Amino acid sequence: MSVSRRSISLRVGAEHSAFALSEKIPTRPLSHGEEHYRAIFENANDAIAFIALDGTITRVNRSAERLAGLSRGQIIERPFTQFLTPASVAFAQERIERALAGEPLPSTFEIELLRPNGRTVAIEARARFLRGQDRAIVGILGIYRDITERKQAEEALRQVHAKLEQRVQERTADLARANEALRAEIVERKRAEEAARAAEREYRALFENAVEGIYRSSLDGHQLRANPALVKLNGYESEAEMLPAVNDIAAEWYVDPHRREEFQRILAQRESVTDFESEIYRHKTRERIWISETARLVRDQYGTPLYYEGTVQDITARKRAETETRESHFQLETRVRERTAELQRINAALQMEIEERKRIEAALRKSEERYRDLFENANDVIGTGTLDNIIVSANRRVEQLLGYPRDEFVGKYFLDFATPKSRALIEERTHRRLAGEEVSPMVELELVHRDNSIVIVEGIVRTQRDPDGKPIGVHAIYRDITERKKVEQLKDELISTVSHELRTPLASLRGFTELMLKRDFPAEKRQELLSVIHSESIRLSRLIDDFLDLQRIEEGHSLYSFAPVILEPLLHEISAVFTKELRTHSLRLDIAPSLPAVRADANRLRQVLANLLSNAIKFSPQGGEIVVGAQTDTHKTVVWVKDRGIGIPQEAVPKLFTKFFRVDNSDTRDIGGTGLGLALVREILTAHQGNVWVESTQGNGSTFFFTLPHASLNT
What we know:
The chain has 715 residues and is an alpha+beta fold. Helices cover 46% and strands 22% of the residues.
């Protein structure tokens, strides 16, 4: 445009100042047309605002206050952008710029209003430029409707009308007292008349652009005025076509010919009517529709009725919805009565259903919040992204999974968080998805944690599509399966270990038996070979027993025979058995005198001690002393097995008693074992209501402790 925004702002400011002066300086009474349009402006059901080209709101009506939830003083002189959502601000500014450039635009559009409590309200808007005498654009007229609430009270219109009459009377009185300033008054009157003409233009624009029908009708049923919205509602093209066609509103417009009488009776009693709902004909097409009227009876200065003036709103859709709701409700009530009749508790059951409906309705109102909580608190990572793998949203589980704050994750390139192997897989799947191929939703990826550790996830990734079926993005759910993968790896290692542990004694048994079958050895050599076979068979038997025992214990099928057991002879017995097999170790007992009997299964106790002694021997390959000790405590006896072997790393201690766990370092790699012995020890002692733990220093041996409860007198 050739006129700068600043010059337009100055011109609009000057005209606004002129209007303000007209409020202060006495002027002539408003003409009936001015009064009429101003009343419509103030009491219209739609919100109306006059906006300068710099975006400042210069005037609003009461509906704008209600719509915004603010007073007029809180709205005027503020930029309209302050009352809209950011998206609506951008839309409105773009629309104004396009309109100023001369681009034809639809007259009706939708934006979102932002109330002080943070709530947004969807509104329907219509806007047009206001022009001065020189046809230059001086501002914008905006008409806004709350789409969800369309009723307005006529009472406000009547009150404003009274206030305007009072203001006119005050100005007239001022004029009577202002004869000495006649010349100044004449000048001011010219300015006031120009402002009044501008106001009439504004109110006429309101009349012409209002979404609701606005009319004036005679007392005997003739149509005197109709705005374009009412003309359209009645099926006509123009007011000039409609007015001559309407001769008797009662007979031609209302489906019920007595409805007009009720309308006139209420107006005669109350001077106004609000939300007067009637079924009418579209005057030209005779189509039946429902409308809601808000009107008032206009009188002259002597109180004589002149005409009716009001607004009309098409409520056909609402009435149809109400009818459908009533029919649906009737069907529901019929089903309820049929079902409850069988139980002879009609009233009670109906009341229960009503209460349940109330509860469900309350629950539904909270459902969005619950689903949001579910999204945020899910154990899995849930998120969305673009087709080119930009992260759009994610729940807070991602912070635990990858260690990044959510704001450092959202908006980033997803591939930046994947290992090279998984990055290639994601790119391949993305290429296939963009090519229109069907891609399996299941995927397994390796992601990089903030501390550079690898996190393995199992995901379900599905393509988001628009209503036409075109891919527009992806939504994904990822579950951390790192521990599961570790367990699977541990299981694979276990299978390998167990295979090795079983194969070793079997190979010895087979080798020595084949050797004895093929050769004839002296009795002494034969005895030696048989001893090896016997030892390996015992080892194989113990390995199988450990597997079976642990399986039975975990399944709850293991049987125990608890009885009072004296520990000292049992410890001597187990020590004697192991002493016979020792070559590079020595075994010493450290037993406190007069140990009380413990409640135990003697055979299971031997199994515990055997496993602990076997480990002590295996994990002190250089030999040394092994100590088996016992001492009493208040209600229990503590037993321990101590060696001077290679010890246990501190990071391995928490996992030591879990099934299949084996310490993996250079010192233990050549030492056999299945990782079942200590798990079996823990399960047996748990069944004995005892505890087991270890104290160890790597390179300086380990001590395994366990407790057993004392036997009661009646055990």
